[in-house]
Structures are given as C-alpha cells and as structure tokens.
Predict the structure.
Amino acid sequence: MLTCLLLPLSHSYAEDFDIWLAELRAEALTRGISESTLDAALTGLQPIKRVIELDRNQPEFKKDYWSYIKMTVTDYRIQKGRRLLEKHNALLQDVKQQYGVQPRFLVAIWGMETNFGKHLGSFSVIQSLATLAYDPRRSSFFRSELFHALKILDEGHIDPSGMQGSWAGAMGQLQFMPSTFTGYAVDADGDGRKDIWHTLPDVFASAANYLAKYNWDGDRTWGREVKLPADFDQGLIGMKINKPLSEWQALGIRRITGNNLPQVKINASVVVPAGMDGPAFLVYQNYRAIYRWNRSHLYSLAVCRLSDKLR
C-alpha cells in the first residue's frame, strides 16, 4: 500500500535524494548511531508524496472556541475518560505520587492526542521525517528530528517497523516528536525501553515528566472562566501579563458567578480565545505547562475543560 504514496521520482531527483541520504547516514555515524540501526532504518528509503501534500496544504484552523470545544470535549470522550480514570487509578496515583500531576489531566491529554490510544498514526516516522528533512521548506527542523528518531531506534526503544506516527513525525499515544521523546520519555516499568506506543506506565509517566519539567503545581488546578468588567484594558490580555489574583480582583475581574476571586497567592493571565465578545479565562501555571505542550489556546482550553469533566 505504501508504494502508491511514494513520490514519482525522476532519475535526477532519485539520484539527488540518494546522495542526500548517503550524506545524512555519514553524519549519523559521526553522531554515534550504529551501522546496523542505519541499515535497518534507511535502506531503500524513499520520500512519501502524501507527506509533502499534507505539509503544503495544512488548512488554516477556522474553528471558533465553542465549535472546537463541542468537537473535542464530547460525551463519548468524557464517559470513556471517566472509565479509564477508574480502570487505571492505581497506576495514575503512582504517577501522581512521583511527578505531582493529577490523573485527570493526564487522561485528558491522552484523550485529546490519540483518543486514548486509538489513533496513533500510520506513517513510518523515519520515512516521513526523511521526506520533510530532504524537502527545503523546513529541512533544518526535520533533519534534527530525524537524528533524534534514529537515536531512539539505536537505543532499542522501538524497531523501525513499529515506529509509526503522524505524517509530521509525532509518535505514540502522546504524539511526542522525537526530540520531545529524547528529552522527556520515561521507562516507568523498568524493562529498558521507553515505550510510548504500547506501555501505559511509560505513557503516563512520560506525560507527567514533561509537565513537571515545566513547573506543574500538583496542588492547583489550571484556572477558571471569569467575567471581565466592561471597561477592561485589552492591553492586559495575553500570556505575557502575569499578575496575582489580588491585582486582577482590584481590576474588576470576578468569577463567572459574579463572586470575588479566590484569596490565594497565585499568578494568572487573561485569555480570551474568541475575542472580547467570547468567554474569558484566568489561567495559572498549570495551563502554561499544557500550552507549552501545544501552543494553541483552543487545544489547551479543551484539555482543561475535558479534565474538569473527568472529575
């Protein structure tokens, strides 16, 4: 089936790619990647036409906040997430004990990324990354990711045929890019492999490790929906402005019920994903960690709303 997705290579294009691949292989050897790994991963490699098509034609995201929430925080996802929270409670509590990340957030991210492991992607990660690294548009970024992916193979965490993911190289039940894997993946079950494709202890611990490294606070939630005063200064909106709740209270922000904000020492930023006519949120440090995972307010708020529904 994959052959129908390969680029129809002209003789010169094929020669150029083979030369490029040989140079990449030589550099990989200087980086300590073994010949056996490179033989298994790179032999016979060709670019994938569909990957280039997807990279060239990424649709501009036009969903508004409420449409996106409706599409992602579904009754199915809420009910399945609750069942999985209960099913994996012991494991999730162990992860919380070690990393301080509440289980509901881990399950919410899991649900958002791959629908709880159902949709991991069907592209060869090595082949996709090689395609994008050879293509000039974002060559430097994907070349770096390809070396990370080869390192993962060389360390024995997965074999090339099992390293499946998205067209852009995101992998496993968390959709980690290879560089994220090498930076944050965890061998939680102690079998010598960091397996974010099949092993839930590794999946949950890796997600928690990532969030913990970005200053997750296990004693706090992510934030809350609020009411802004009619004369609110729009220059105060955005993640660059981070003020104590007491200052936001003095500026007229209230809970969505109209009551005062909590009297706790915590900093927050104002986010308005649909503009001033839509909902407004005060978001805390934990939101920032989720936003670091995926720099989209729609995605981050969907994770947070789903996590609330799982409680």
About this structure: The first strand starts at residue 123 and ends at 124. Residues 223-283 form one domain.
